[in-house]
Fold this sequence. Notes:
Layout: H1 38-44, H2 50-58, H3 63-67, H4 71-76, H5 81-88, H6 97-106, E1 121-125, H7 129-132, E2 140-144, H8 145-151, H9 163-191, E3 196-199, H10 201-210, H11 221-226, H12 252-267, E4 272-274, H13 281-287, E5 293-304, E6 315-322, E7 325-332, H14 339-345, E8 348-364, E9 367-378
Parallel strand pairs: 4-5, 7-9
Antiparallel strand pairs: 1-2, 3-9, 5-6, 5-8, 6-7, 8-9
Amino acid sequence: MKSLKLKPDAFLIRNSRVSRIDRQQPGMRAEPDSGTNRTDLALISLGVATTKALKLREAGHTVTKLKQMTRAELMKLGLNKLVVDNILGSGRPPVPPKNLIEVLYANRFTCCVCRKQKRGVIVHHIRKWSETRDHGMDNLSVLCTLDHAKVHTKSELTQNIDEAALRGFKQRWESDIAQMDAEAILDQSRQHHDAWVYFNHQRLFNLAVQNKVKFSDLDAFEVAKRQQLCDRNGFLVPRNLDTGWMYNDGYGPVLYAYVRDVLHATLEKMTIANISDDLERGVLSALLKPGDFILVQGLHSFAKQNSVDKGPGQTTDGIRKANSVSVEFTLDRFEATSSSAHGRWVSGTVDVSSVIRVGTTMSEGGKLRIQGTVLAIAMGFSGFKTREYASFPYRAGVYRVDDFDEDDDSWLDDDDDDDDEE
Length: 422
């Protein structure tokens, strides 16, 4: 299997409302999108293909409106019998929102068999729901309309996709996707050597140990050890505390090279989710759990919590907030990697990329708070965020694209429909 080489493309901003469902690019996104629209999700949960869901929504249809139509009217819209049964309540219940979002994102809205990103997809039950009553993640796969037809067809001329083969396709594709965002971060870091403006050194080295990183194999290890920046086991030697930031001496470049090597070696063993374009309460509530690692790019605000300006203890709160979602963490500015990092990139309001370990997620007053521990912060990365969250024209041609159309929000609140009969 060929490895996937991810390269950032030119990003186009459009003033039309677009949906993830037929514009998704695995890894780095090639175009902005509106995230996951509730109407689209509600239709997909009932077996509608993503491309068909988009057309139905653009024509003004919602699940609520479709339920009021006759069978003949639904068939005239091009919906098949099984989907019509599901809409009218005589078929299976909808896939629960959390499971649906999880499987779509785990597959990047892309068929696990052909991996062709521009094809519409269907969420398929590997074993029939009527036999298993199973809407679980392990029983759901994402197939394009062509491969979905093949799953339901037996042929003597082409290779059939049976249950075992489909599970294999699903496992391999989801495994490849799990590494895409970490690989994209590494690609950006290699292109921009001095991009990292902050490291949480204790957390980073603890994580490196957990992931069995061998410090002595790193390129900068011997130089760092020779200059007594780390001990023979690879752990950092305490630095001069009577300075604004710990890299503030002639050994700073060597220390930076070594810590950056540690970060790279650790990232190579991790799964990280880039959520920069997915700051939506429903999506992140379904996707994130404590211990997950995320990357978020965009405007961050940093606020000092005390007057300490030298040595450890320069406590600073950081937050990335958009679309009723906030990602919050606390850092020590002493661990900034340079004078500009200390004075500019972890101060005030700046556009940076943060790698964060999720601690808690809380819904409060219609907003989602994600609190975690920041691992590292970089400036100068491109392509991780392509979506505009502003509710007014931010610049020519850019408009709000995150409004939801679904007029029956209860679909997102109840995922306990599995007992309904097909």
